[in-house]
């Protein structure tokens, strides 16, 4: 259930190359747009496996039996880094409902960290398709805690995860916590996490590269 979209060459692998490039990263608009493009392609690929229904569409010359999505998903994102990926998916699932979560690494003096969730805005998820978009799947801890928080009192019928770059360890963590039947859609997959739990070679801090550096608390 892991969809590695750079496994075969496509435009996604070109956009991933630009995301990683320290020279191209100086152009924030380009960086955000490349992540947005990846979100668009992931949404398109996801849609192929979603249920559809037939509706009658009136054209200037007659009636056409058209295939359309049987239902709209809920797209959830982790603030703030996830916003460009979220927007890309929303460009294609343009009638979707949306959820927003504040989840971040709260670091301790000994170098360890815990995931802190301070804000959640979410529609009804019961028996719906939930897509969680976050550009970087590093340790997997924030993604797992986010999904647990979202689904604590609600039960979506499907959960999909969309990321620009994932680590193998992050994928394993998510599968151990949520099961191997949760589809993970990855622009690319890297092998290594460093001592600070960042993906190597990765691309750096997606939030900072999209929106500028933040003050450290």
Protein described:
With 217 residues, the protein is α/β, with parallel strands linked by helices. The protein has a single domain, classed as Rossmann fold (3-Layer(aba) Sandwich). The chain has 6 helices and 12 strands. It has helices spanning 11-20, 28-47, 83-92, 141-150, 168-178, 206-211, and strands at 2-4, 52-59, 62-69, 74-79, 97-107, 113-121, 129-133, 136-137, 158-167, 184-190, 192-193, 199-200. Strands 1, 4, 5, 6, 7, 8, 9 and 10 form an 8-stranded mixed sheet that branches. Strands 2-3 form a two-stranded antiparallel sheet. A two-stranded antiparallel sheet has the order 11-12. Helix 2 packs across helix 3. The chain is globular.
Top-tier CATH class: Alpha Beta
Round the mean pLDDT to the nearest integer and report it. Answer: 92
Number of domains: 1
Kindly identify the CATH topology.
Rossmann fold
Rg calculated over all Cα atoms: 18 Å
